Amino acid sequence: MGRGDGSGRLVSPAGADDTGTGILHVDMDAFYAAVEVLHDPSLRGLPLIIGAPDGRSVVSSASYEARRFGVRSAMPVSQALRLCPTARIVPPDFRRYQEVSKQVMAIFEQVTPLVEPLSIDEAFLDVRGARRLWGSPGEIAALIRRRVSEEVGITCSVGVAATKHVAKMASTISKPDGLLIVPGSRTQEFLDPRPVGAMWGVGPKAAEALERRGIRLIRDVREAPAEMLARAVGSSLGERLQQLARGLDAREVETNRIEKSVGHEETFEVDVVDADMLRSEMLLLADRVGERLRKAGWEARTVSIKVRFDDFTTLSRSLSLSEPTDVGQRIGETAIALFEQIERRDPVRLIGVRAEKLQDAGAGGMALWDDDAGRRKLEGALDDARARFGNATITRARHVGRGEGRGAPQHPKARGLE
């Protein structure tokens, strides 16, 4: 199957059979790097690392030229530079990425109203009702690839299949700049020889647990006793993986999909041991999370934190709220309470605050008494002031002198808009 560096890719020939399909997964190729090349054509063909240049930050994205040296997203920039010393480091510009993403999504929505964005650079499309206008699913996929290339100037890879799971796998295997069609009748033939790690939703730990029990291929998942899968990954995930391994996936394309979470992280230039400073940074991150929730019209039912120590050990904690909230101060207080539960007090390299289990604001009904009414009014006023004067000019007094942006910037795909 295709790898992160583009080796081993599989693509379909022109006019390939697309019988029994109707779901497309479209994924931009090395999106951040591609947008930077679009902005500065002199970067074309160079190994690019998208990230902060301080060496302590992590790689947000990398061009395929850099990936062939082993550079990967979320890898420390210092390690990436050791693997590829000739790489050019380009600071990320997420506003630019959002603008290009809007152009791409607009093309999708001109083809079909049934579009489910998964992140800033990928989406599912249900094109079963668009045949009369645009042709068969394979023809529609080719049309989308052509339009994205000609109108936006970047490339994408597309998987065409009968289900979301298989379409997602197919687009990954066809990267970069490819199209892979899996006819409905050949779904099992496509799935069986693939490694378990290729399944959408199977991470490295789950793949390792399965492989320890001799379950290495998707065929093995399909044929394994339910009890063995349950011992490896739990009964719920085991049952779901076995359904997917048999080509069964009832999930529809959700056009009104709410993002799973909104979060921000901070990677420090120097490891931090000052607990008061860490608490202050968590409040700052929580304010940014709250602002994004209010802007999107969402509330969160769960708050979670992430703490990475100087030895790269990473711990997380989460707490469900009695009432959903979009108030940064409430999120921050919850984050600090979670932080206090962590006994380790080693130097901290990174902290993160995340709002999870999102819902439309007000979806839970109006509470008899709103403890956050005053805070919400204050933070709404801050939102208005930032919109008028800019983010850099308005902040809470407790943040003055702390400074924002000392660590790696947050990028929407990995941490903000998952």
Describe the structure in brief.
The protein is of the alpha+beta class. The chain has helices at residues 31-39, 64-67, 77-83, 94-111, 131-134, 137-152, 164-173, 187-191, 204-211, 218-223, 226-233, 235-245, 275-296, 328-340, 373-389, 412-416, and strands spanning 23-28, 48-50, 61-62, 88-90, 115-119, 122-126, 156-161, 179-181, 261-272, 298-309, 314-325, 348-360. The two termini are 24 Å apart.
Secondary structure layout:
Layout (H helix, E strand, L loop, with lengths): L22 E6 L2 H9 L8 E3 L10 E2 L1 H4 L9 H7 L4 E3 L3 H18 L3 E5 L2 E5 L4 H4 L2 H16 L3 E6 L2 H10 L5 E3 L5 H5 L12 H8 L6 H6 L2 H8 L1 H11 L15 E12 L2 H22 L1 E12 L4 E12 L2 H13 L7 E13 L12 H17 L22 H5 L2
Parallel strand pairs: 2-4, 7-8
Antiparallel strand pairs: 1-6, 1-7, 2-3, 5-6, 9-12, 10-11, 10-12
Low-confidence stretches: 365-370, 403-418
The proportion of strand residues reads 15-25%
Helicity, as a percent range: 25-40%
Give the count of structural domains: 3
- The secondary structure category is alpha+beta
Please tally the helical runs, counting DSSP H or I stretches of 4 or more residues: 16
CATH architecture of the largest domain: 2-Layer Sandwich
Q: In whole angstroms, how far apart are the ends?
A: 24 Å
By DSSP, the count of extended strands is: 12
- Radius of gyration based on Cα positions: 23 Å
Overall pLDDT confidence: 86
Text of the CATH class of the largest domain = Alpha Beta
Strand order of the largest sheet: 5-6-1-7-8
